[in-house]
Amino acid sequence: KAGVTQTPRYLIKTRGQQVTLSCSPISGHRSVSWYQQTPGQGLQFLFEYFSETQRNKGNFPGRFSGRQFSNSRSEMNVSTLELGDSALYLCASRLGGATGELFFGEGSRLTVL
Amino acid sequence: QQQVKQSPQSLIVQKGGISIINCAYENTAFDYFPWYQQFPGKGPALLIAIRPDVSEKKEGRFTISFNKSAKQFSLHIMDSQPGDSATYFCAARTGTGGGADGLTFGKGTHLIIQP
Predict the structure, then answer these.
(1) How confident is the model at residue A72 (pLDDT cuts 50, 70, 90)?
(2) d(Cα A25, Cα A74) in Å, to the nearest integer?
(3) Which residues of B touch A40 (CB under 8 A)?
(4) B59-93, pLDDT tens digit by residue?
(5) Count of CB atoms within 10 A of residue B39's CB?
(6) Cα(A94)–Cα(B51) distance, rounded to whole angstroms?
(7) How confident is the model at residue B98 (pLDDT cuts 50, 70, 90)?
(8) Cis peptide bond prior to A8, omega within 30° of 0
(9) Is the pLDDT assigned to residue A99 strictly greater than 80?
(10) What digits encode the pLDDT tens for the residues B11-62?
(11) A47 in contact with B at a CB cutoff of 8 Å?
(12) Cβ of A97 and B96 within 8 Å?
């Protein structure tokens, strides 16, 4: 069974640009979450989607957005990039419900210059 | 506001020894406490998890001890091996209705097992 797949794995952008990251969850998983990982702040929850609806959202500005498609694949977008947005962005999927184990992808490493 | 405090930041243990990582939380609504292991270049992977109605859970060499009154939980790695060298994260989550909030993670512990 394939794991969570994230693309691209690495990317470099400049300040003010926007970026879109993609995530394909494990087959059958309907919930997709996004996390930001930085050395200073650690792992922080961005948002979670379930059946194409955003179910929960972390404490991030509106520049961070996401969506989920009918096949459960998800994308997240960051507009007007800032230097501080440089991070590893992790996608995780689970079957759904309150207790499902989260399975993480290997992440997309974004560098903002 | 850091809702889950993890210590130590880094830990060096001799092969065969016991590695102990501690976490404390503030939000009494948390009802699910997982531990994740992360190797360089990889995403975090679930090691073991516990709910607050249980004081201890053991899976192989990994044990979670949970103290609800003190709002603390810890990970013990018995007979630590060089392959256990990784970064470990504790986390907590509330379950709300049919779904669940996002995980709140500790800052992580960089564990090195010396051969």
Answers:
(1) very high
(2) 8
(3) none
(4) 999 999 999 999 999 999 999 999 999 999 999 98
(5) 12
(6) 18
(7) very low
(8) yes
(9) no
(10) 999 999 999 999 999 999 888 899 999 999 899 999 999 998 999 999 999 9
(11) yes
(12) no
3-state secondary structure A24-53: ECCCCCCEEEEEEEECCCEEEEEEEEECCE
Residues 31-70 of B with CB under 8 A from A: 32, 34, 36, 41-46, 49
Transcribe A45-109 into DSSP letters.
Answer: EEEEEETTEEEEE-S--TTEEEEE-TTS-EEEEE-S--GGG-EEEEEEEESSSSSPPPEE---EE
Asked if residue A1 has pLDDT above 70, the reply is no
Higher pLDDT, B9 or B101: B9
Residue with structure tokens 């590695």?
B19
Identify the burial level of B44 via C-beta atoms within 10 angstroms of its C-beta, where 0-12 means exposed, 13-18 middle and 19 or more buried: buried
Q: Which long-range contacts (CB under 8 A, 24 or more apart) does B14-17 make?
A: B14/B80, B14/B113, B14/B114, B15/B80, B15/B81, B15/B82, B15/B113, B15/B114, B15/B115, B16/B79, B16/B80, B17/B80, B17/B113
Pair B108, B79: CB distance under 8 Å: no
Tokens 């560098």 sit on residue: A111
* B23: Cα within 13 Å, side-chain hemisphere: 29
Comparing A85 with A55, which gets the higher pLDDT?
A85
Determine the Cα–Cα distance for residues B87 and B11; give it in Å rounded to an integer.
Answer: 10
